[in-house]
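Quick illustration for those who missed Monday's session on complexes.
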Amino acid sequence: MRPITRTATATTPRRPEGGPAGEVAPAQPPAFFDPSRWGRAAGDVWSGTWLDRDALERRAHQRLCALLRFARVHVPLYRRLHRGLPPASAATLAELPVLRKSHVMADLPASLSAVGLSRGAIEEFIADPARIGRPLAGRYAVWTSSGSTGVPGVFVHDGDALAVYDALELLRFRGLSSAPVPAGPLLASERYAMVAAIEGHFAGIATVERLRRTFPLLAPWVRAFSVLQPLKDLVRQLNEYRPTLLAAYPTVAELLADEQRAGRLHLSLDELWCGGESLSAATRAQVAREFGCRVREAYGASEFLSIAWPCRLDRLHVNADWVVLEGVDARGRPVPPGEPSHTTLLTNLANRTQPLIRYDLGDSITVLPAPCPCGSQMPAIVVQGRSDDVLTLAGRHGLPVKLLPLALETVLEEEGRVSDFQLLQTGQRQLLLRLGRAGRARADAARAVLRAYLQRLDLPGVRVQLDAAPPCREPCSGKLRRVVNAARAAARG
Ligand SMILES: [Zn+2]
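Prediction with zinc ion bound:
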């Protein structure tokens, strides 16, 4: 899906600092799309694919030092957070403070190196769906996310960062760097479909729309479909479009696999890509069986679009030359390989417009202790991402209707304007909505948008009650599961 105009063949880093712009103070932020910088990023990613572990670490360390120097001069948030700390060249990542989404969102302009981007301008941009995939101020991509913590986030990326994300997607995820024979299907014969939440400035749809605008010739072969619509409409649209590549959340892929088995969906896929939620072995096997194709896991976020890619053995390898992941326990101490982390700290080495250094991502990862037999030197991980429940409610004549957590969350966030919530299914026709303190003032609006959504799905008999209790975290993991089947939750303990 990720197109490319040219690939450079350099095998050595061009700049001693190894940073996206190299210099500490770029005179002008990079353009939204610049073919020469895009080609340079592709050359860098191509050469990085073949580095051994020591060389990878050296390259990442050089980038980190350059990023630290830059951020401490040009980003007010880091001038404050890193005051009194050792100089960039002597700093080790583990000694630096953790950055939380609340730090970023408390003073969004202070998290940016871009001068003149006000919170008002950013909010006006993300309030306008017509601008999805277009640049803010002609230069910046802006992506929003709720994440699993219930705090909405806004992330601003520059053209250099986008060029790196595109190159990582094309050369590593798609395997085009394994020349001369690409591992993935040829670009020319593909029809790519993404089934996702497309009604906001989310990283996925914003990327699809950006690529459609940048490369208009590809636009007919790259399309996005909304998960908010009734399933029968989605099935009809997919049958008409006939994609060969499909990207979806695992819960969506599972639902579509049911439709394929029932004979209502007739897709002939080369590959199916899953991301955004935990992909269990059972789901992977079921989806692969129904579609008769390879299922590949992707791991990305609004904070860094392409964190890890699946090798030919379907293990996820971190793009360690451009993003650093640290698995830590509940007290912030490093977790050894082989053990799941409580959370993960992400350092984005590609983006200088909004540097994220030791940013708390909220996901749990396990770094695999043994080298991967595929030969890649990049660390292999297992991600325990979001794992909300698919709800099955009783529709007309008692027929079951499945509701996707992604769709319910999008309705509550985008239409109901609440982010700190938990929705429980307590019966075949009964939902219970819990809201945090901030969301309680919007309780009526949240219930109204949920009811309207249920009407659209032809579920008029389902009741939505408000619970006096706030959202409740899992007793063991401390994670907030936002869409919950209460019976299943009780069985999980
Ligand atoms: Zn591997």
